[in-house]
Design a protein that fits this description.
The chain is an all-alpha fold. It has helices at about 5-35, 40-50, 55-65, 75-85, 90-100, 105-120. The protein has a single domain, classed as Serine Threonine Protein Phosphatase 5, Tetratricopeptide repeat (Alpha Horseshoe), CATH 1.25.40. About 75% of the residues lie in helices and about 0% in strands. The longest helix is centred in the N-terminal third of the chain and has 32 residues, at about 5-35.
Amino acid sequence: MKTRHKIFLFTLICHLAFTTNSWAGFEESHAAYTKGDYTTAFNGYLEAANSGDNRAYGKVAALYLYGRGTAKDYTKAYIWFGIAKESKDKYAARFQETAASMLTREQIDKAEVALGKKREQLGIKSE
């Protein structure tokens, strides 16, 4: 097998392994949330979101906003709703505004900087 083919095959296998794992993590988290196990749901959604699963962005943000499975954190909710908004979540902008209403102007400015870093970490380009 040529080196180029080996590299392609290796890349494909890695992609499938990580994508499947993210998908499973999201599904398991959703099942935990449905059962009321918010801590397990939060941890799984956060892992999926940090792995780039755009379905989990708004879920993580909402759990931060309402303090389910984690402590309420309006700054982190603002950041994750910003990521969800850029991933075309149709409700994210409204909920990001809700999180922002609980923050001072200075906190929002710091959250915007953190949002930029999270966007970069996830490889999301700003609109």
